[in-house]
Amino acid sequence: MNLDALFQQIQFTEKQAREKRHFIQQAKCDINRSYEKINQIKEELSAAKVNLETTVQHLSEKQFYLEILKKREDSLEKQKAELINEKSSLLKVLTDAKRKIAEEEDNFTREVTEFNNEYGLTSNRDLLIKKKVKTEIKDLENEAALLKNEMESMEHKNVQLNALQLQKNELKQDLFTLQSELKGVPDNYLL
Prior knowledge:
Elements: H1 3-119, H2 125-155, H3 162-184, H4 187-190
């Protein structure tokens, strides 16, 4: 081999060695960039994992609160049903009380008239009527007070019982009307 060919062979080998070194260096740079990307992706993945765990925890808390609210709603629905039943029974009691008051009033008037007619107590009739009226009024007031106490205890449970308050006021108004009518009735109408 001649010297030029050897020299060219050496140059060619050096060139290949430089290219290989450059290729290796490039590969190392690519590997380093890949490691950096992997580390960056790991950090992003870790941050996403933390965010996901936080989101899952928030969702679990919200689900827990939702279950509590559903239980509370069920409890309130049961209370509402109980209060509606109680309201119905109180309205029935109030209706029965009004009917009873009307019957008692009729019976009282009839009994007073019969008594006066039977014994001819026209002079004492006003006194007897007033006493019986006072007794009846007191009984009605006691019954109204009992209903008022019962309704007040119910009003604390539910706003819907305001209707009973209105009916109680109606009953009181009926009572006051009855009192004023009895005071204004002349003696000859009571016979």
